[in-house]
Amino acid sequence: MFVATVVITAVLAASLAASVALKLSHKPDVVEGYARVHVPEERLNALAGVLACAVAGLIAGLFWAPIGIAAATGVTVYFLLACGAHVRFRDTAHLGPPVVNLLLGAAALTLRLITY
Predict the structure, then answer these.
(1) 3-state SS, one letter per residue, for 67-116
(2) Residue 35: pLDDT band with limits 50, 70, 90
(3) How sure is the predictor about 4, in pLDDT bands with cuts at 50, 70 and 90?
(4) CA angle 58, 61, 67 (to 5 degrees)
(5) Where is the protein found, in the record's own terms (predicted)?
(6) What are the tens digits of pLDDT across the range 41-95?
(7) How far is CA 106 from the centre of its chain?
(8) Domain boundaries in the chain?
């Protein structure tokens, strides 16, 4: 079961790292995507910082379970709120990536709890 934990955590960490890079790039299409859900460009760096901490916590959590559980919980809540924002602002056409990360976060949390 720990192998599944490592695989899901690695996939989630890679996805979050890509998201961090996109947020920090401030590319016009990225800024526009966040503007659709009323997130101002000034907040992208802070959101990238939150996700960068999540990546570090997920990886560290493979070696010390309490950190991994906390990080996976935070990721799950973060993407639950992101999905809620997309629904609230009727941007369901772009709901896919947050849902995938929500499911990966929930899976990582569940697996880390099982293997604790």
Answers:
(1) HHHHHHHHHHHHHHHHHHHHHHCCCHHHCHHHHHHHHHHHHHHHHHHHCC
(2) very high
(3) very high
(4) 95
(5) Membrane
(6) 999 999 999 999 999 999 999 999 999 999 999 999 999 999 999 999 999 999 9
(7) 10
(8) 2-114
Residues near 108 by beta carbon (within 8 Å), at least 6 away in sequence? 5, 8, 9, 12, 58, 68, 72, 75
> Token pair for residue 94?
């772009």
* Closest-CA residue to 76 (of 91, 58, 56): 58
Tokens representing 84?
């809620």
Q: Which two tokens stand for residue 113?
A: 């709890």
State the pTM of this model: 0.95
